[in-house]
């Protein structure tokens, strides 16, 4: 893999062919968010959107904790160690931190999550901005802000109840307790459980499947997932979905896909 220049010490951004691999890299601090990490994630998601070679991204972490959320030790005395670059960019992109945490302006390409260990508070909040989620079978999740006198500002009060049953979302949000990987799977919060140490490999398998599909079709489906939310009337959502489908069916890739099916061979998609 090639490490990209947009990496920071707290967030490694690497490219592996058509896949962007984003790795949280503060294992000594349980990968708690700091300005350098947020800056790296922000840059990564914008690169994913802008680079036509990239087809999807994997978010993972180094160490035995995926992410413990905000760095409360730094927050207690107001010192976030913010770099001049981070603060300068915040002046022009005031929601930079929310973009980094996938609350705002999510990239229009699939995001795959690979979780090892604890994913608490912001660690479970950023999960909700991803599309396909792999977890180690000993992973632990939780939106624990209320237990610290805080509020989950990265979107959990809105997104969580749309992704799992309302009463389970209410339990997570109001009790602030940990849930096991098995509970997360049973509740529909993650897609798959694997042995510890195997999440990145499993995420790569999902990425390979996505990259083997037609780029225009994947982009249109991802855009529909992003834009056609539950709040839209079904008829309006269907009309908006049809508008995305038209160019896909008219593409050269659609003709190639049907031709390859007829000829019983793998399709050779060109994104055209």
From TrEMBL:
SUPFAM superfamilies: ClpP/crotonase
Molecular functions (GO terms): enoyl-CoA hydratase activity
Keywords associated with the record: Lipid metabolism, Lyase
EC top class named in words: lyase
Annotated EC: 4.2.1.17
InterPro entries found in the cross-reference section: ClpP/crotonase-like_dom_sf (IPR029045), Enoyl-CoA_hydra/iso (IPR001753), Enoyl-CoA_hydra_C (IPR014748)
GO biological process terms on file: fatty acid beta-oxidation
Matches recorded under Gene3D superfamilies: 2-enoyl-CoA Hydratase, Chain A, domain 1, Lyase 2-enoyl-coa Hydratase, Chain A, domain 2
Entry keyword annotation includes Ubl conjugation: no
Family: Belongs to the enoyl-CoA hydratase/isomerase family.
UniProt-recorded name of the protein: Enoyl-CoA hydratase
Upper lineage: Bacteria, Pseudomonadati, Pseudomonadota, Gammaproteobacteria, Cellvibrionales
């Amino acid at each position: 893999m090639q490490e990209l220049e947009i990496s920071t010490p707290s967030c490694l951004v690497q490219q592996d062919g058509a896949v962007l691999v984003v790795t949280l890299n503060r294992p000594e601090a349980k990968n708690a968010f700091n300005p350098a990490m947020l800056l790296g994630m922000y840059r990564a998601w914008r690169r994913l959107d802008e680079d036509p070679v990239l087809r999807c991204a994997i978010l993972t972490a180094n160490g035995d904790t995926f992410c413990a959320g905000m760095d409360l030790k730094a927050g207690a005395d107001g010192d976030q160690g913010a770099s001049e670059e981070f603060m300068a960019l915040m002046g022009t992109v005031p929601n930079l931190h929310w973009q980094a945490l996938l609350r705002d302006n999510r990239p229009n390409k699939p995001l795959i999550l690979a979780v090892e260990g604890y994913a608490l508070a912001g660690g479970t909040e950023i999960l909700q901005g991803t599309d396909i989620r792999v977890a180690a079978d000993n992973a632990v999740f939780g939106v624990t802000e209320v237990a610290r006198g805080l509020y989950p500002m990265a979107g959990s009060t809105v997104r969580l109840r749309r992704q799992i049953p309302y009463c389970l979302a209410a339990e997570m949000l109001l009790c602030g307790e940990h849930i096991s990987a098995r509970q997360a799977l049973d509740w529909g919060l993650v897609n798959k459980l694997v042995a510890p140490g195997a999440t990145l490999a499993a995420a790569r398998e999902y990425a390979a499947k996505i990259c083997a599909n037609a780029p225009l079709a994947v982009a249109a489906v991802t855009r529909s997932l992003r834009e056609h939310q539950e709040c839209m009337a079904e008829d309006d959502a269907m009309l908006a979905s049809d508008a995305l489908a038209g160019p896909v069916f008219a593409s050269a890739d659609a003709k190639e896909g049907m031709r390859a099916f007829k000829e019983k061979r793998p399709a050779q998609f060109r994104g055209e």
